[in-house]
Design a protein that fits this description.
126 residues; mainly beta; 7-stranded mixed β-sheet; globular
Length: 126
């Protein structure tokens, strides 16, 4: 069964950090571009960060640049999103996704992704 599972969400105070993880099963995540998306209540889903399958290129939304870092785990079937200096407006359900796109291409549109996780809640509040 092809599956992505996110973990690491939770409640954190403003200025705090969280590290989200995405684990793949049934396929080799290392061959895919990876994207992190989020959706807040009443808002559309937005791309937060993506990394090409080659790892040479990345994308960050302007709202998270300098605060979030996307990476792959040492185990080829994992990926991470390190989130620092969190703000209340970062509150959302975060999803990881995998896209079978060419090596240096960084997909940022949801329709470009083939597999999605179920999401993990991130709440930034004092």
């Amino acid at each position: 069964q092809l599956q992505l599972v996110e973990s690491g969400g939770g409640l954190v105070q403003p200025g705090g950090s969280l590290r989200l993880s995405c684990a793949a099963s049934g396929f080799t995540l290392g061959y895919y571009a990876i994207g992190w998306f989020r959706q807040a209540p009443g808002k559309e889903r937005e791309a937060v960060s993506s990394i090409s399958s080659s790892d040479r290129n990345t994308y960050y939304a302007d709202s998270v640049k300098g605060r979030f870092t996307i990476s792959r785990g040492n185990a080829k079937n994992t990926a991470h999103l390190q989130m620092d200096s969190l703000k209340p407006e970062d509150t959302a359900v975060y999803y990881c996704a995998a896209a079978g796109t060419s090596s240096d291409y960084v997909p940022v549109q949801g329709y470009e992704y083939d597999f999605w996780g179920q999401g993990t809640q991130v709440t930034v509040s004092s």
